[in-house]
Amino acid sequence: MTDARDVRISPSILSADFANLERELDAINNADWAHVDVMDNHFVPNLTLGLPVVESLLKVSPIPLDAHLMIDDPDRWAPAYAEAGCKSVTFHVEAAADPKKLARDIRAAGARASMAIKPNTPWEPYADLLPELDMVLVMTVEPGFGGQSFMAEQMPKVRAVRESIRTHGGDVWVQVDGGVSAKTIEQCAEAGADTFVAGSAVYGAESAAAAIDELRALAAGHAH
Ligand SMILES: O=C(CO)[C@@H](O)[C@H](O)COP(=O)(O)O
Ligand SMILES: [Fe+2]
């Protein structure tokens, strides 16, 4: 059984005020992680920030950073985010040349190794990678932008990932990212997700801290 302590909320600073990121990190200090979306305008059609900004965020963040790398050639770049101090580093399997080696490199550099799959990418061909992973991120929007509509049709994939983890054993977290809000988080938890990214639902709320508490309570009520 999963209880409230096993539900993790990771607000995405993509929806924060980029001119005031230290203040925006402080505003979510009751969250478990801060989710940082790194986009390179190649893997996705958007450009955000890279390692120098992440290094600065690491100096001031009250909570650990969860780096979501939406970039080409993660084999080359991802371990540096772990070496810099990100406690979780997610690469996209669609972009990785050697996902097994990359996951090992991330772990060797001191971070949790996480693999993301886009909405049109099936899970089954990658299930054998589970022993190398600490988290699987099932995208619930096409990566690239905050504020998009949640794709409920990804819930069977969340169930399939959770089932593979049950079968293979191991304490692998299942993260969902994209359109997660008070309206959609319960079905994610019900399907087997335990780690929830929310950008606009947190930073668009009157109180980010209250939104985080609400999301955590809703997810915990449906976790299993
Ligand atoms: O990775 C991404 C988008 O590609 C996300 O992390 C978004 O930043 C989530 O934003 P919301 O959908 O919650 O507004
Ligand atoms: Fe993300």
UniProtKB/TrEMBL annotation:
GO cellular component, one term: cytoplasm
Residues binding a divalent metal cation, per UniProt: H35, D37, H68, D177
Family annotation (SUPFAM superfamilies): Ribulose-phoshate binding barrel (SSF51366)
One of the GO biological process terms: pentose-phosphate shunt
Catalytic activity: D-ribulose 5-phosphate = D-xylulose 5-phosphate
NCBIfam families reported in the protein's UniProt record: PRK05581.1-4 (NF004076), rpe (TIGR01163)
Similarity comment: family membership: Belongs to the ribulose-phosphate 3-epimerase family.
Protein name: Ribulose-phosphate 3-epimerase
Organism of this sequence: Dermacoccus nishinomiyaensis
